[in-house]
Amino acid sequence: MCKKDIKSMSVNELKGLAAAYGEKPFRAKQLYEWMHKKLASSYEEMTNLPKAFREKLERDLPYLCLEALEVQVSKLDGTRKYLFRLPDGNVIESVLMKYHHGNSVCISSQVGCRMGCRFCASTIGGWTRNLSPGEMLDQIYRIQTLSGERVSNIVIMGTGEPMDNYDNVLDFLHMISDEQGLNISQRNITVSTCGIVPKIRQLAGEKLQITLAISLHASTDEKRKELMPIAYKYTMGELLDAVKDYYRETGRRITFEYSLVAGKNDTEEDARLLADKIRGLNCHVNLIPVNPIKERDFRQSDKNDIELFKNKLEKYGINVTIRREMGRDIDGACGQLRKSYLEREI
Questions:
Q1: Nearest to 267 by CA among 227, 301, 240, 316
Q2: Residue pair 133/8 in contact by the 8 Å Cβ criterion
Q3: pLDDT-derived band at 335, boundaries 50, 70, 90
Q4: CA–CA gap between residue 145 and residue 154 (Å, rounded)
Q5: 151 Cα distance to chain centroid
């Protein structure tokens, strides 16, 4: 019997599964709808499926449903941080953020991360494994079920590097936007990458309508190398060439993520150099006051420096915003909640 988790299976794969059990093809559509539209938490809830079929599925394909180990709720803005346990005992984290335009969920794509970005808590423990499409989907399903809130926007910007789990992320994108499931518009989905150039080019060929966010975080190759090991493999020139190709293929505006670290990348000269590199590209710069973690000595730029940086970019004609800080009174930064949980369990 197939060992793929059942929530990662397409309708066609489920038809094959149904046939293997002697069931009619329409059972596959019913099963898919229970998992991806009705967000069932068990086979038992699938009342229009024959009991014998459900029992066989339970025996051969244990139902994937993430367990919420911990939920932190911000008293400042209502942000909810979820710590989920996977079937193999690993833990991941996800975030529900409430905005005036709708509810946004930030999900993880891997257990841990191997990219080594210096300012990120997600990478401190290294990489354990990739998440399946079903495990990515179920972060959204559990949050929607537990919170009672409809999710309208998705950001793949939690723990992990999505382009390092390319095939599973691609399957996830097709399934979450499938009209037979939650049918979330691809235009409301953002995929964030630290810049794995060949995968960006491959993604461009998929002709999806998602937003691509590039974690840039520096104005020169030298400064980027201090913060992001991926910069040793791909120069900013190579990265920006791939980004320009992505825009030509998809017509989708690019987002550049730029974490401001005091004394590292937050000067007006950095702003000028950054503007020189991205001017003329249909893009938006998202300035992020870095979220300090105890393992690093990075400090957040002060408000005056952040405003000066923003104003300088605007002077050069760059579209820029300062990201609103969410969940600062909880373990809000990527990887913080998972890391604190693992430290307590040791």
A1: 301
A2: yes
A3: low
A4: 16
A5: 14
pLDDT at 176 over 50: yes
For 211-267, the pLDDT digits (tens) are 999 999 999 999 999 999 999 999 999 999 999 999 999 999 999 999 999 999 999
pTM of the entire predicted model: 0.94
Strands of 153-156's sheet, edge to edge?
Answer: 67-73, 80-85, 91-99, 102-107, 153-156, 189-193, 211-215, 254-260, 283-289, 320-322
Query: Using CA of residue 240, residue 213, residue 256, residue 124, what is the dihedral sign?
Result: negative
Asked whether the beta carbons of 170 and 130 are under 8 A apart, the reply is no
Question: Which residue in this structure is represented by tokens 């992001």?
Answer: 228
The percent helix, strand, coil of the chain (3-state, each to 5) is 40, 20, 40
Fill in the amino acid letter for 255.
T
Would you tell me the crossing angle of helices 11-20 and 26-36 to the nearest 10 degrees? 130
Q: What are phi and psi of 103, to 5 degrees?
A: -95, 130
* Total Cβ atoms within 10 A of residue 329: 12
What is the mean predicted confidence (pLDDT) over 138-156?
A: 97
Give the span between the Cα atoms of 200 and 331, in whole angstroms.
Answer: 30
Residue (of 208, 211, 191, 173) closest to 8 by Cα position:
173
Token pair for 146 = 């537990």
DSSP state of 261: B
Please, are residues 296 and 335 in contact by the beta-carbon 8 Å criterion?
Answer: no
| Residue 325 in tokens | 């800080």
> How far, in Å, CA of 178 to CA of 168, rounded?
15
Q: How far, in Å, CA of 83 to CA of 66, rounded?
A: 10
Residue recorded with tokens 């905005």? 99
Phi and psi based region of residue 180 (left: phi greater than 0; alpha: psi -120 to 50; beta: remaining): alpha
Residues labelled as active-site residues:
93, 334
* DSSP letters spanning 131-179: PPHHHHHHHHHHHHHHH-----EEEE-SSS-GGGGHHHHHHHHHHHT-T
Report, as an integer, the average pLDDT of 317-341. 75
